[in-house]
Structure formats: structure tokens, C-alpha cells
Amino acid sequence: MPHYPSLDGIRGIAIVAVLIFHVLPQRLPGGFAGVDVFFVLSGFLLTKRILSEIRSGNFQIGTFLLRRAMRILPNLTLMVVSVVLLWAWNFPPGVTREVAQQGLWTLYGIPNLYLWTHLGTYWGSAADWSPLTHTWSLGIEEQFYALLPMFLVATLRWRVPGMTASITALMLVSLGIWWFGVVRYPVAAFYLLPPRAWELLLGCLIASIRVQTPPIGGRPDWMSGNATGWFGIVLVMSSLVFPVEGASSSFCNSVPAAIGCALLLGHLTSSARPSSRLAWALGGRCLGAIGRLSYSLYLWHWPLLTLGSYLAERWDLNLTLGKAVGTLASFLPAVLAYRHVELPCRRSGTLGLRKPALVATALLTTSATCGWMTRTQLADSAGPFDPPHYSGRSYDAGRLFIYDWSEMARYQGLRTPPLPDRRRDSWRTGGIIHPHGGGNPRVVVLGSSHALMYASMIDSLCAEMGLSVAFLCVDGGASPFFDNQQGHSFDSDSLAAQFDRVRMGWIQAWKPETLIILDRWEVRAGDPSEFDGKVRAFLRQVAPFSQHQILAAQIPVLSGIRDYNLLELVQWESRDHSNPAVLKADRQQGMRDQFAQVLEKAGEEFDGVCVLRPDIALLMTDNRVRYLSSRKLLYIDDNHLSDEGAELFRPLFRKALTDTIQRSKACTSGTEWNAPDGRPGTAGHPHSSHERSWTTNWSRPR
Fold first, then answer.
1. Of 243, 543, 612, 667, which has the fewest CB atoms closer than 10 Å, so is most exposed?
2. 321 Cβ contact list (under 8 Å, min separation 6)
3. Are 176 and 289 part of one and the same domain?
4. Is 626 inside any structural domain?
5. Mean predicted confidence (pLDDT) in 647-672
6. How far apart are CA 476 and CA 304, in angstroms?
7. pTM
8. Packing angle of the helix pair 250-268, 193-212 (nearest 10 deg)
9. pLDDT averaged over the chain?
């Protein structure tokens, strides 16, 4: 099959777009569409070669699959074993075990299934920090390679009318599945072959048109024209710069990228116009060299980018700098693997037994290495620190409590009570209600997982004080504000809006004395002014239906933890030291401090608002975080408190709840009430200017 230098240029554009997107997504927000370009290009080249060999009588499925294996596996195997060994050297055993497990799925062509079932959305933090996330696209291509030759051979053998019509029909079916899946099941639509096959089949369609109906008499057809080529490149480039927000953006990125690439292929491979200006531009030496290196560079850039991110976070450096350094460092192994592994294994000529035997040996050796690493045990739970406890999931009013944390390496060793047997989305019926004092809830807790981590402690306090309490908290990032959207907690915007309406309806019906609002505030706004506007709007909404509102500043987030098992990490990093590892707050602590000041300012200006500062008790000098108390871990991961950590703030919450009860009684009886600082308050005006803010303060540890 003739070599088209301009196709190397398309590969070059695609891989550069992917690299920029992974390092600086804000600079090229649609750069991930470079993978869609690769899909179309792969479908075109494979179909053109298969059809050419079928017509010449030289095609054999076994030989085709062996050549595909020799093209993909050598470099892939080397990359996987290198990543597993590198992670074993730099990270705790639990992290290495997960990487090795994913490596096994990758070696045998189903990494996309692993990501779908284990890591969730491509846009989430779990996938973002996994060194083998990028292999999802290889899984789709390998599964397609196994099915394509059988489909083409069957089409010709059974004399199905019109191969082009058959490919078109199958492509439209896949496109329909993808269109439906992006809206209803975006994670599955992103990772699985049936919704993604339309892009590869689009390349197959162009190849079948080119093989079956070449330009007659050298006259160009409509695809051969210059306008088609230039329109194609405009579509591809526009798809790369279009802003992106989640998987649903594929409508604005994947479709134009795929169609543009198809038009480019039709133009560039036309025998009627072999040397157009566009072909000359795309066939340049520099762009072509990057394109020929694209597969190797794609394999190696993501693991080293991820490693750079981990090390930058661990050393408190700029995360983007870590990504950039890791990506630049990946060029060296990519070039070496391309020249000394990839090229020797894909050289033309008869496929003897020597090279396949070497590749099979490497594959089995790498598989054995990964298999051995998956048997690595977590750090000894009977070590110098007690396993933490966590009861927050028992108070989840949403649907995420059905997932078993014991299967996640991040939380292995964590002590959790059995999950209650209750309906999903219990927020529809008032959430988790404990009528300790009878009647409607006098205390209502709103928030995400950062409210759930205090829930057990708040529940026991309310039981001691005889206060009925309701928990309308949902894990997965649900906002306490009434501005929820589709995401981890809700499948659609309409469900999120219904959640907000129902919560507000319960507050209006109950008219509780106290609302407790807890959240990871840093994810709710990009700057203090935006956050200030959201806080004030929320307080204006709930103030007419609740006498008091208790808000707490966000606790520090531990730097360099991410998806590690915290107990294991602390034991691992303390193994050669007599003192526990030093953990610091991440680079967002300055913004969290500003958001805490916004809350305190709102507490000064709004009647009935109390702001608690648990962060002050945890943040020490030099940005160090108090995550340990004797043998007890105060955190369960990088940003959630354990039950032991929440108990540290029992006096803080008890004082706040006691003050609200005293103020409510004083207001009801009309008697004079003394504020917590001893100053007299006015019974008729229990929220006078003297008592507007009764923030409980801690002395900062030194």
C-alpha cells in the first residue's frame, strides 16, 4: 500500500493536540478530540489494506492479527512493565497493586473495560491520576481490529449488496448508540466499543469508497477537490479549540473532528490530486516526524506526565510545571522505544517465528510481573497507627451508599459500620431523620461528603440534647446551595433541580431552629467574590424558614495524597523514621483561608449565623497539617475526617448548638439572654448587633 506523507502530518496534529490538552487544557480545551482523529485514521488505513489484500487474494486473518500484535504489543508491553516497576519504586504497595491490575487488563486488550468499571468518568480525579488511563483508546482499537476483518470477509463472501452500504448502515447504528449514550450513559458511551465504533467505521467508509470507486480517468471526484480538503482541516482545527465541559461536549468536538478527518483522507488519498498544497503542507518533515512517533509518544507521555504531577504535588510545586516536565521527559523513552523496539518489530518482510516468539515471551513476562504485583499486600494494619473509623456513609441520603468501599484500595483497613437497608434517594422522603426529641426536625444538616464526615458526631450530640435531626446530605459532590447540576450525584440536570426543590420544601415545612451547612467550599466558586455572592444568596433563601444557621470552614486538604490509602501511606513513609511523616496542606489552602473569611464576614452581617473554624485546629506552622493524634488518624483520605477526627470538634459543635437553643428559648420567653461572651442580649431581638457573630475560635497550634 502506498505511503502518504500527509497522513503522518495528520497524526502529528492529533498527537500535539492531545499533549497540549493534557498539560494545558485551558489553552486547547478540545485537544482530546485528537483521539477521535486517530480512530478515523486507523479505520481508514486498516480497511484499505485489508480490501487491497482481499482483492489480490493475499489476505489471511491470522497473518493480519499477527501483524497488528507486532505493531502494538512490543512498545505497549515495555511501557506497562516500566510503569509498574516505576510505581513500585516510588509509591506504596496499594497504589502499585492497582496499577499492576490495570496493566493486566491493558496487556490483553480490555483497558477501557477496566476504566469503565473501576475508575469511572474520564473527567474524574481517579482517571486523571492513573498512569494507564490513556490506554482506553488502545482497547477500543484492538477490539475493533479483531472484528473488522471478519466483517469485511463476510461481506464479500456472502455478496451482501454494496459493501459501502453495509459499512454505512453499521456506522449509523453505532452513531445512534453513541448519541443516546452520551446523554443517558456518558461514561459507558465514552469507553465502550459499540458507541465509539462509528468513528472507526467512518474511516472504513472512506477507504471502501476509495478502493471500490477510484476517480475515473484521473478526473477528481467531489472528495478530491481542494475545497473538501481545506474544509476538513478547518473542521479538525475548530474541534480542538472548542470549549469543553464533560463528556457531553463530544457533540461539539468529536463529530467535527471525525468528519473533518474523513474529508481530509478522501482528499489526500485521491490519485487525481496527489500533490495539492494541503498535502504538501501536511507532509512537512517536522510534522511528519512527530506523526511517525505519535504511537510511541502517546504511550509514554501520560505515565510520565502523571508521575510529574504526583512529584510536583508531593514537593509542593506547581502542578502544571510537573505535567510539562513529565511530558518533555517522555520524549526520550518514546524515541528510544520507537527506534529500538517498535521499528524492528514492524519491518516489512515475512513474519518468521523469532520476533513473534520474543514478543510473546515479553508479554508473558510482563503479565507475570503484573500478576505478582497484584498480590502485594497493604501495609500491616497492626502497625504503629490505629485503623480509622468512618460512619458518614450511614447518613447519605442519596444513592452512592450502595458502593462497597472494601473493594477500593484507597479505603482498605478503614472501619465502617454495616450500611443500612433503605431506599435510594431518601432525600425524597426527608432524608435520614432521627427523632431524638420527637416532632419535626429541629436541626437539619445540609451538604456533601464534608457534611457526612461530621454526621455521626452531630447525631450523637442531638441525641444527648434531645433534638430531632434530619440529614439531607448527599455524597458525590452535591452542593448545599440550591444550584446543583448533573454530575456524580445526579444523572441529569432535572434530577438535580428536583433535589434542590425537595430540600427547600422540607425546610419550609419543618421550619427548623438550626441549619448546619457543611461542604468543601473550594469547589463551589473560583474566587472569594463569587463565593461571597453564593453564600449571601443562600442565606437569604433559608433565613425566613430557620432561626439559626451554623457554617463551618473547610478543613485543610492534605498534599500529595490523592487516591492513596492514607493509613498505608503514613506507615510506608514512616518506615525508616522514628517520627510520623510530615503532611502539609495543598496549594489551595490560601483560597480556603479566603473563603473562611468570607463566611466570617457573612456571620458578622447576617443575624443568626454562626461560623465555626475547625481548620484552625488542624493547620499548624509551615502549612503542616495535624492529621494524627497519638495512634489515631484524624483523616480517612486527603480531605475527609475520620470519626476520630470529627470527635475532636464535638465541643465546638456542642457550644454552637447550645447557644442556638438558649437564644431560641430567650426569644420565645421574652426574657433577657446573656451572649456567650457574657454581654447581655435583648430577648425581643436575640440577633442584635452585639451577638451577630458568635464564631468559636481555636488557638492555632505552634
1. 243
2. 312
3. yes
4. no
5. 83
6. 29
7. 0.78
8. 20
9. 85
Mean pLDDT for 248-258 is 78
* Cα separations in angstroms, 144 against 184, 195, 207, 297, 661: 24, 12, 16, 22, 66
pLDDT bin (cut points 50, 70, 90) of residue 644 is very high
Report whether 193 contacts 144 (CB < 8 A): yes
Per DSSP, helices labelled H in 466-613 are 493-510, 528-542, 566-573, 589-605
Would you place residue 268 in the very low, low, confident or very high pLDDT band (cuts 50, 70, 90)?
confident
Count of CB atoms within 10 A of residue 138's CB? Answer: 20
CA 534 from centre of chain:
25
Over residues 208-233, the mean pLDDT reads 71
The number of domains in the chain is 2
Burial class (CB in 10 A: 0-12, 13-18, 19+), 161: exposed
Q: Is the pLDDT of residue 76 over 70?
A: yes
Residues 128 and 242 in one domain: yes
Per-residue pLDDT at 215 exceeds 60: no
Q: In which domain, by residue range, is 364 found? A: 5-373
Answer with the residue of higher pLDDT: 430 or 153. Answer: 430
**How far apart (Å, rounded) are the C-alpha atoms in residues 476 and 124?**
11
Same domain, 68 and 16: yes
In a domain, 138, yes or no: yes
Note whether 411 and 273 are same-domain residues.
no
Element (H, E) at 461: helix 449-465
Give the pLDDT confidence score for residue 375 in this predicted structure: 81
Q: Is 550 helix (H, G, I), strand (E, B) or coil?
A: strand
Helix axes 136-157, 61-90, angle to 10 degrees: 170
CATH code: domain of residue 452: 3.40.50.10140
Does residue 385 lie in a domain region?
no
pLDDT, position 677: 42
Letter string b/e over residues 19-50, b meaning 16 or more CB atoms within 10 A of that residue's CB: bbbbbeeeebbbbbbbbbbbbbbbbbbbbbbb
